[in-house]
């Protein structure tokens, strides 16, 4: 075997090993394949899968999608059931890519209770937790929906213009409970990165966000939720994997 052949075979072996490592990195994809909705609890409402999505050129507050595979879209009218994963998660890393039209609103909720907001906040100077990337404020639904605080705003406005794909990476540590079900440690967003910029680190969650702070009991594990009832949104490359957190063991 010549040296050139050995070098080529070596490069092929290294490439194959790199591919295997990439495929075995612990991520579970919840948005690809022929049945991309199989990993989500029913009812999934009007959600459908698409091969391409863009802001509707005739109406910048809507999305135009071509049906196919690879992208989750929350229905033709941008208002349907929230998606909840079939699997419950404790400490978890989440990667999602999202696209919204102008003035749209969505969110990613860990355990279905702790929300990182998705909103058309491009160019806004003064941010609150209700802006894109924010830890959503506590709220009450009666007599009409209103905030009780400002939530936790992102450190910087990393939001891209409506109609562009954006990336959101979240490391979440679930609340801890003893064997009697009493909470011993709050949950936290260990790190949140929006479009490559760190927007949160070590944010303690004393209670769920939004109206869930009073309506939902805290639990040691829960589903990933993609919000679908506040406006058009598309998601792709929705991936999760366990996060090996340090600290007390959850019940």
**Radius of gyration of CA atoms, rounded to a whole number:** 20 Å
- Tally of contiguous helical segments: 2
Task: Give the DSSP E fraction (strand runs of 2 or more residues).
Answer: 35-45%
E-strand count:
16
Give the second-level CATH assignment, the architecture. Sandwich
Q: Please identify the top-level CATH class.
A: Mainly Beta
Please identify which CATH superfamily we are dealing with: Exo-inulinase, domain 1
- Average pLDDT, rounded to a whole number, is 89
Q: How many strands, what sense, and barrel or not for the largest sheet?
A: 8 strands, antiparallel
**CATH fold topology:** Jelly Rolls
Helix content: under 10%
Terminal Cα separation, in Å?
58 Å
Structural shape: globular
Structural key phrases:
single chain, 2 helices, disordered N terminus
Structure characterization notes:
- The chain has 251 residues and is mainly β.
- It has one domain (28-242): Sandwich (Jelly Rolls), CATH 2.60.120.560.
- Helices cover 10% and strands 38% of the residues.
- The protein has helices at 3-23, 212-215, and strands at 28-29, 48-55, 63-73, 83-89, 92-99, 105-110, 114-119, 139-140, 146-147, 166-173, 176-177, 183-185, 187-194, 197-205, 222-226, 234-242.
SSE arrangement:
Elements: H1 3-23, E1 28-29, E2 48-55, E3 63-73, E4 83-89, E5 92-99, E6 105-110, E7 114-119, E8 139-140, E9 146-147, E10 166-173, E11 176-177, E12 183-185, E13 187-194, E14 197-205, H2 212-215, E15 222-226, E16 234-242
Antiparallel strand pairs: 1-16, 2-3, 3-16, 4-15, 5-10, 5-16, 6-7, 6-15, 8-9, 10-13, 11-12, 13-14
């Amino acid at each position: 075997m010549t040296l050139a052949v050995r070098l080529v075979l070596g490069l092929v072996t290294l490439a194959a090993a790199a591919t295997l490592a990439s495929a075995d990195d612990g991520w579970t994809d919840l948005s690809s394949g022929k049945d991309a909705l199989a990993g989500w609890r029913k009812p999934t409402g009007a959600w459908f899968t698409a091969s391409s999505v863009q802001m509707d050129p005739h109406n910048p507050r809507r999305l135009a999608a071509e049906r196919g595979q690879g992208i989750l879209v929350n229905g033709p009218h941008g208002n349907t059931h929230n998606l909840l994963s079939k699997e419950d998660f404790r400490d978890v890393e989440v990667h999602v890519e999202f696209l919204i039209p102008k003035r749209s609103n969505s969110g990613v909720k860990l355990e279905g209770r702790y929300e990182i907001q998705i909103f058309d906040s491009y160019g806004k100077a003064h941010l609150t937790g209700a802006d894109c990337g924010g830890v959503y404020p506590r709220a009450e639904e009666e007599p009409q929906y209103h905030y009780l605080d400002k939530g936790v705003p992102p450190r910087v406005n990393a939001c891209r213009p409506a109609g562009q794909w954006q990336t959101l990476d979240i490391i979440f540590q679930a609340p801890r409970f003893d064997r009697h079900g009493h909470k011993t440690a709050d949950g936290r967003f260990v790190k949140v990165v929006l479009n490559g910029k760190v927007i949160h680190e070590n944010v303690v969650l004393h209670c769920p966000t939004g109206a869930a702070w009073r309506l939902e009991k805290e639990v040691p594990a829960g589903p990933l939720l993609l919000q679908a009832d506040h406006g058009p949104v598309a998601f792709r490359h929705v991936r999760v994997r366990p996060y090996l957190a340090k600290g007390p063991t959850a019940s």
